[in-house]
Amino acid sequence: MQLTPEAYLQAIQSDRVYLIAQGHEIPVHKALLAFYSEYFALILSQNNPVKSEDGKISLPNVSIATLKQYAYWTYQTPNFTFPGDAEIEQLQESKTMLIDLWIFGETYGVARLQNEVMSALCALLSTRPLLLAKADITAIFRRSPSSYSQLRRLTSLILVAQAQVKNSPVRIEEYDSPMFGGLTSMLYRSMHTWYTSVISEKKKPKLPQLLQLQSIQSGLAVREPEPEDWVLRLCGLVVPVAQAGMSKGEPIELED
């Protein structure tokens, strides 16, 4: 679901909540936080016992740069594209920023952000797979909360595709840190089995075409849940009649 212009104007009339990262505070309107994020909607729900103190929410292990990008995305919904003549340093910075944003979205339940960032990462890495360095893969497996996250699947798939190239230098054992207990190898083998069994040897697509396959796109997408009824009302959106008065966690007042 997307906010209409009218709903957006209504949403920015709501109270501001201050997100804190690395000692810095960034204000974001409550309605926008709750609309895009299941996590923030839960924290900000009137009937939730877990309350933010004084309208502030601390975000441990989040950099101020990532928080600023998230706040900007919340209001502007930027188009994550990169010019073809961009310098390698700029592309490296963009890659790191996208990885950080995706993990932020996974950690704090911002599915729409994850999907937009994943599309950008696929576009970036499909033609420049070597941008994904060993340090990036290690960081992804260390920081991504879910064992089988879509971001981990993407990195495994890129390694599989690279390994199919003649005289490829890819050796999966170099990526399998002991701290992951063999998870990197397991995901790699799973992707490799799919790649070699499902895709015809004669028709194996190059990485850009591979990442555009519907089966791949579906596997890398995150389900975007509908906002809670109280969030929709805060944004001035009409709640469907069948759901009206049935918002999860809200008390029903009975007349005497």
UniProtKB/TrEMBL annotation:
Under Pfam families, the record lists: BTB
What range(s) does the BTB domain occupy? 14-75
Q: Which PROSITE patterns match?
A: BTB
The name this protein goes by in its record: BTB domain-containing protein
